Amino acid sequence: MKIQQYTPSVILICLFSMALLFSGVAHSEIDKNDQQSFEEWLAELRDEARREGISDKTLDAALNELSIVDKVVELDRRQPEFTQTFWSYLDARMTHWRIQRGKKMLKKHAKLLAKVEAQYGVPARYLVAFWGMETNYGNYLGKFSTISSLATLAYDPRRSTFFRKQLIAALHIIDQGHVSRADMIGSWAGASGHLQFMPTTFLEYASDGDNDNRIDLWGNLPDVFASGGHYLNSIGWRYGELWGREVLLPADFDWQLATLKNRQSVSYWRALGVTKADGRLFAEDETLGAIVLPQGANGPAFLVYDNFDVIMDWNRSIKYAIAVSHLADRLIGLPELRNGRDADNRPLSFEAAEEMQHRLNALDFDAGTPDGIAGRQTREAVRGYQASVGLTADGFPSVSILERLRDQQAELFEK
Predict the structure, then answer these.
(1) N or C: which end of the chain has fewer CB within 10 A?
(2) pTM, entire model
């Protein structure tokens, strides 16, 4: 009798599958048994802040009676940029109200926006689009205490180093007299103000637009727009250039070319048969761009340029960057997206994405440390897996890919 031999990768798959059957992935509250108490942690943070020159008065006002906010941890694990499909994400944000309201804001604040555009080279429509995406043009600044949110996330070990830095920066902002702890409210992730700046972004790029020696991003639009313009200009905005555009790809397109890292000239893409969304040809152009597929080969396709990378520096989500860019286009009357509505629109949950990462890793496709966030490394792992089994290698981490991985493992058990 022949004994079936299994490779180490297959054994890992089997062990992982058993683990999935008999256990669940819990992501609700911080496991307080695996680290020092919050009170001990907070005392150390206070000492660090004091060494950085933050006054005891500010520390007492900001840190006394602070506690963990479990809702913040829950939201951190379920960010819509990672759990919603592109179309679901875009449709929820590209509403008639948001587009029409943005057009009114462009007219209402035209003089102020023109001044900022002349100073920083960022067109008004992009500043208004960021404003609309972040806080509905100031209608909703968030409901979380920035200090409480940042303290919670800094204590949570998942991204503690990043959020500890943000918390110290927030304390500096309060200490400098720009805002009180009570008025420093924003998102669950610690972003605040009309443009939802993180504290380190505030300290480096926030600008005093009306020269009153105080920067108020919670209620002063000259400061808000000046800060947005200064930030985008400082991280590389190219005046007079587009962010990108929707395109059509040829039937024989090599899907492995569709990655942000693969930057080629417009002329190169034209030669491969890439056209504008309405089928018209591109002019010969040496401007570099990359093909982006936010919902896989069956969804819409975009050719994006350097300014798209700048928008990605604001928020590392491709969905967010396309949404801001498209909103900026709609504010000046450009049409809605034309293609890709027939894509599979089933959402990949946080737990499903983490399961996919485990399964890819077990097959030696490096998806990184499983965290439920299908970022760039996960997409590259998906692309490698797709190529290995003869699927369209678009790198899209879809529900159908997870189903294929599960089926493959089930076949291994049956052998």
Answers:
(1) N
(2) 0.86
